[in-house]
């Protein structure tokens, strides 16, 4: 398993637009076989940082999702929405191996 962790730096005046974008991506990740763990929007502290995490069975499955999403009409529309609205100033992506309580 591999979990993708995304940290976004946002335009703090467009959090609502980012929330709409986030809601678009949750079912899209799941459509391609991932398990989305949600987006986390600013609440207290920094007003321009958001996080997201989702898991795929393997890095190869994640890479397949990335390739397939570039050809999917709904994904392309989500990418275009972010590009047009310009609410994401930057982001960083990291990968982790999850540990769950049921593992020995």
TrEMBL record:
Q: Which domain of life is it from?
A: Bacteria
- Coiled coil segments of this chain: none
User: Where's the NIPSNAP domain?
Assistant: 8-99
- The protein's name: NIPSNAP family protein
Q: Which organism is it from?
A: Pseudomonas migulae
